[in-house]
Inverse folding.
């Protein structure tokens, strides 16, 4: 609609004659998008984008649609016909339109809050697994049919389900999906990073847009799967995602940009696709033949231009198998072959950099930045990469210093030196998640302090005192007609589910069991939604998996520079232990801040001056141990 109508002079004349036009950036205002998308679903039976609403001056909608063509066709009214008709109805039948608009708002307000009907138990996890297993694509990985989205929160739940049950199919679904995505056209084989989704079931032809949140959530999934399998392919995939983000999506202030467009020079994918002639000019004959074979290029192009239904002459790079598996085909060692391909890829990257780039959306969003901070913090400790830790610290310090008001409340967006728009549920819940991850990667007490502050603001401004759970918008939001709550995961995990897992972890870190009461109220608030479709809220399943347990709190006390201390911490941070929270108290500090934040640690001491682990479960601590193998046994540490 942007190109067809909103840039069209005739449409503009009609719009400006009859309406005050407001174009909403749904990334800046997800609250507005959420409300009016619900309106569209209620009025038309479906939703989607672009979303078109006609409303009264006091924001009450009386018309909703998604795509509207410029001119009427195939029985669908066009904008040129709709706009004057709507204006005439407003002029001649305004009372009826306002009545309908009031009725729609009343229906929205009267959508009953989820009534508590029972108690969730472990069976819900098995039901979520079963539903995901049913829609799993056995051939190509992923879930459902085209268009196919990465949905990494499905994978991170399945990883926790595997940890809990040892279910081999669960791990199989994860690995199949991660491998197929990395080989496909949905992954930028030259510059790295994932495109937004695949238009086909094979992960081949992507919608070429790149989103920051996809990079973050997928990096977490690859990092955690590496923890379980120790397969370096997953580590390399995560590292390549970070290469892309730190190179192309990082502001000098430390924050991360939101997205890169799909098109350049008015053509989707033009920046990313290749003609064989370009490869042959750029590389030697032998190198070009090798590259063309490995990445499946064809003279006529390897995909069709949907607009004309013919081969495009362009090629999307994709692999049939991991690069190092080709080495024997060319009589080379794995190491030599991988290095050769790295050199060729770099040549293509440098050549591609001279093309006109897709436009970059350089606004910095608190919630999406928080997801990237969490991914970097997790990878920093798993891979032992200090560069990732530094990037996570810099981005966090930027948000905490530049994206808060004088009362400590967050802003949602920063751009060109301006922080604006009061933060939403996702901003708080995702940043709290990031701060917990960053604390466990740095053991800097200040990040835990900030977590507690933000969680208090979240509870004070977003909590539903009547029915439990968190609203998407704060109590001080004044420019929206209603406040809504949600539990289902879309491209992003639900803020309620992330907040639930945060409070479970935070309660164990600081020893405040009252937070678990809020957790229970969230599970009650969304009980009906969860039991209807548990696979639609995999992030909630991850939170419930922690809640059902077993979950552990581990306090390590020892000299920061001691080999034993480093070994204990390494075991806890490098293994996949999603239901373990870790506190560290350096014994060389007489009175450490952590003992004031987590008061249950106040009387904990080293045993015989050795690095000591206190292992607690449900706020009850076992006898301390100085033996690493005992700690491993207590925590049931295993790997795939």
């Amino acid at each position: 609609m942007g190109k067809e109508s909103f840039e069209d002079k005739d449409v503009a004349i009609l719009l400006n004659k009859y309406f005050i036009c407001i174009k909403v950036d749904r990334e800046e205002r997800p609250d507005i998008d959420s409300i009016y998308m619900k309106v569209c679903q209620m009025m038309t039976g479906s939703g989607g984008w672009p979303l078109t609403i006609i409303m009264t001056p006091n924001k009450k909608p009386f018309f909703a649609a998604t795509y509207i063509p410029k001119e009427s066709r195939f029985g669908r009214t066009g904008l040129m016909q709709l706009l004057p008709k709507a204006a005439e109805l407003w002029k001649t039948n305004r009372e009826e339109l306002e009545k309908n608009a009031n009725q729609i708002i009343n229906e929205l307000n009267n959508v009953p809050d989820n009534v508590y009907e029972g108690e969730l138990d472990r069976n819900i996890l098995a039901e979520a697994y079963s539903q995901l297993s049913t829609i799993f694509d056995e051939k190509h990985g992923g879930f459902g049919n085209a268009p196919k989205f990465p949905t990494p929160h499905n994978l991170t739940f399945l990883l926790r389900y595997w940890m809990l049950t040892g279910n081999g199919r669960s791990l199989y679904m994860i690995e199949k999906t991660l491998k197929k995505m990395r080989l496909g056209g949905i992954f930028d084989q030259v510059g790295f990073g994932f495109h937004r989704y695949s238009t086909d079931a094979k992960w081949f032809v992507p919608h070429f847009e790149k989103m920051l949140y996809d990079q973050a959530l997928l990096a977490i999934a690859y990092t955690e799967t590496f923890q379980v399998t120790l397969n370096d392919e997953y580590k390399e995939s995560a590292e390549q995602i970070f290469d892309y983000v730190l190179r192309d999506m990082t502001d000098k202030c430390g924050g991360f940009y939101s997205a890169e467009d799909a098109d350049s020079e008015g053509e989707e994918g033009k920046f990313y696709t290749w003609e064989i002639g370009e490869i042959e000019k750029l590389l030697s004959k032998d190198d070009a033949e090798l590259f063309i074979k490995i990445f499946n290029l064809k003279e006529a192009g390897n995909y069709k231009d949907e607009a004309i239904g013919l081969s495009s002459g362009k090629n999307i790079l994709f692999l049939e198998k991991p690069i190092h598996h080709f080495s024997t085909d060319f009589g080379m060692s794995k190491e030599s072959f991988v290095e050769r391909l790295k050199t060729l890829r770099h040549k293509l990257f440098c050549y591609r950099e001279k093309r006109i780039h897709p436009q970059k959306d350089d606004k910095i969003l608190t919630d999406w930045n928080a997801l990237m901070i969490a991914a970097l913090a997790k990878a920093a400790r798993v891979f032992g990469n200090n560069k990732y830790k530094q990037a996570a610290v810099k981005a966090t310090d930027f948000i905490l210093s530049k994206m808060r008001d004088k009362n400590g409340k967050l802003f949602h967006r920063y751009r060109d030196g301006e922080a604006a728009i009061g933060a939403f549920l996702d901003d708080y819940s995702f940043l709290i998640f990031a701060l917990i991850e960053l604390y466990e990667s740095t053991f800097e007490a200040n990040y835990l302090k900030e977590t507690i502050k933000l969680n208090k603001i979240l509870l004070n401004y977003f909590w539903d005192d009547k029915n439990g759970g968190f609203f998407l918008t704060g109590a001080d939001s004044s420019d929206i007609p209603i406040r809504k709550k949600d539990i289902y995961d879309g491209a992003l995990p639900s803020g309620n589910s992330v907040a639930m897992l945060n409070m479970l972890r935070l309660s164990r870190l600081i020893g405040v069991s009252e937070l678990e009461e809020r957790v229970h109220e969230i599970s009650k608030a969304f009980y009906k939604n969860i039991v209807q479709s548990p696979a639609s809220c995999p992030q909630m399943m991850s939170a419930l998996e922690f809640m059902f347990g077993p979950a552990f709190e581990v306090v390590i006390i020892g000299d920061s520079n001691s080999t034993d201390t480093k070994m204990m911490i390494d075991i806890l941070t490098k293994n996949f232990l999603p239901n373990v929270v870790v506190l560290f108290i350096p014994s060389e500090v007489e009175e450490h801040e952590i003992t004031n934040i987590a008061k249950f640690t106040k009387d904990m001491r080293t045993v015989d001056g050795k690095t000591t682990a206190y292992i607690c479960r449900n706020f009850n601590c076992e006898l301390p141990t100085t033996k690493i193998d005992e700690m491993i046994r207590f925590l049931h540490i295993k790997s795939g």
Notes: Residues 272-354 form one domain. The radius of gyration is 26 Å. Residues 388 and 584 are 20 Å apart (CA to CA). The mean pLDDT is 92.
